[in-house]
Amino acid sequence: MIDFFSDTKTRPTAAMRAAIAAAEVGDEQKFEDPTTNRLVERVADLLGKDAAVFLPSGTMCNEIAVNVLCRPGDAVICEESCHLVNFEAGAPAALSGVVMKAVAGTRGRFTADQMRQAVWPASRYAPKTRLVAVEQTANLAGGAVWPVDQLDAVAAAAQQAGLATHMDGARLFNAAVATGLPVGRLAAGFDSVWVDFSKGLGCPVGAVLAGGRGFIEEAWARKQGWGGALRQSGILAAACLYALDHHIDRLAEDHALAAEIADRLAAIDGIAQVVPPDTNIVFFDVAADGLPAPEIARRLQDEHGIQIGAFSERRIRVVTHLDVTVEDGRRLTDALGQVLKRG
Length: 343
Ligand SMILES: *Cc1c(COP(=O)(O)O)cnc(C)c1O
What we know:
The longest helix has 17 residues, at about 325-340. The two termini are about 25 Å apart. The chain has helices spanning about 15-20, 35-45, 60-70, 85, 90-95, 110-120, 150-160, 170-180, 185, 215-225, 235-245, 250-265, 295-305, 325-340; strands at about 1-5, 50-55, 75-80, 100-105, 130-135, 165-170, 190-195, 205-210, 270-275, 280-285, 305, 310, 315-320. The chain folds into 2 domains: about 10-245, 3-Layer(aba) Sandwich (Aspartate Aminotransferase, domain 2), CATH 3.40.640.10; about 250-340, Aspartate Aminotransferase, domain 1 (Alpha-Beta Complex). The chain has 14 helices and 13 strands. By secondary structure, the chain is of the alpha/beta class. It has a 7-stranded mixed β-sheet with strand order 2-8-7-6-5-3-4, with helices on both faces. The chain has a 4-stranded antiparallel β-sheet with strand order 9-10-13-12, covered by helices on one side. Strands 1-11 form a two-stranded parallel ribbon. The structure holds pyridoxal-5'-phosphate.
């Protein structure tokens, strides 16, 4: 099976497994796990924040950040395609009682002006706008990168309006590799930011949420209360440390492969539109008069042993990562060409 469904599908390499096996461990909740301690210090440093906390998932990072930064009844400004709105089972409402004010942006990004317009004027009738959340890179927009100037402008506008800022950095390292800017620079204007290790970095489990000292203390209380506090988490953190050393620069290969695949897709009959990838995610639309996307995905899997994601009747997602090769990319576009030709 060749798996282009998601960069979450990566499996730990032999070397990563060796790092896991060699991990020094202790009780994370007592700060006695030296490997987890090293990981959070290193990530806090990289992200330019005072402190950080290890969490089991990116979703928990988002939900804890919203919960710490908002009160029930508050509003969170975000972009309509974001993970917080679409893939977290309504948890901002269920866990934190917030209203998501989703802006219709461009490729997952909104401008400082759009942000200002989304703030409700202060009134006892309106929700209190409390937080602005951005997603770097924007997943459903095709791994789109927020330019640093736009991030800075939104963060400055938020600060001026007295709002807190949060960055969902599930693929922040992809953005850093694509722009050549350090992750800390990209996250500079944001009060809280997290990175996912179980996406393109190839780890089995883990995310790290960073921010100010007071914020992380509060985040720890939620981690404890929501059942995310761990014990010998060094087993997981060792994989993350390994990924920081070995799996970041190579993200450039994923981006190059995504660009190559996008170019070839654009030349296939029956593909109506390809969203040009900034990083490792390629979205494309199949023609309205051809096979529906779910059927194409099914045939690709059954007949060619290749997985892709059908996101609607017409839209397909392909994600490049550690476990797919340039040759796999060729097999993907050849197989798609065959499936679409036969119709
Ligand atoms: C995957 C993802 C998340 C959630 O991360 P998990 O580790 O799967 O919980 C959040 N935001 C974005 C943009 C993602 O792609």
